[in-house]
Structure formats: structure tokens, C-alpha cells
Amino acid sequence: MPVVTVDWWKGNDRQKRADLVHELTSTLVRIAGCPREAVTVLVRDVEQDHWGRGGTLADEPGEVPADGAEPPERARSVLSESR
């Protein structure tokens, strides 16, 4: 009985959440060999001012970090960028 929890920034609509749940469920069924009914997916929307990275909150402007990652104000959820 796999349980997957996804924390992502608030702002993704219901259809994106539904797509995420569908894709994660399908992948777990394929890889784990479990029935669809056994898969639980929890999606939690997090405000940017409740999300910190590199010592700053995601809603704060900042310069590009040395590791080349996007600064917080330009960061987007993985699914938002791939669509």
C-alpha cells in the first residue's frame, strides 16, 4: 500500500492535481505491481512564504545562487514548467 506525499507551491489548479495523482498512481501500479486502489497520493499546497530554500523564503527576491538554481521569485513547480 504505497503512500506518496507531494508538497508543491499553492496555485496549481484542480486539473493539475488530478493529472499528478493519475500519473503517480499509474507509475506506482506499474513499478510496484500493486492495484490502483492500494495507492494513496496526498497533495499539499504550500504558500511561498512558508517555503524556504538556501536560507530565504521563496517569496523573497534574490540573486541566482552559486549552484545555478533559479532564485526563489522565479522558481516554479516542476509540473508547471513541464506543461
From TrEMBL:
Signal peptide: none annotated. It comes from the Bacteria. Residues 71-83 have a biased composition (Basic and acidic residues). InterPro entries: 4-OT-like_dom (IPR004370), Tautomerase/MIF_sf (IPR014347). Residues 51-83 are annotated as: Disordered. PANTHER family: 2-HYDROXYMUCONATE TAUTOMERASE, TAUTOMERASE-RELATED. This is 4-oxalocrotonate tautomerase family protein. It comes from Streptomyces acidicola.
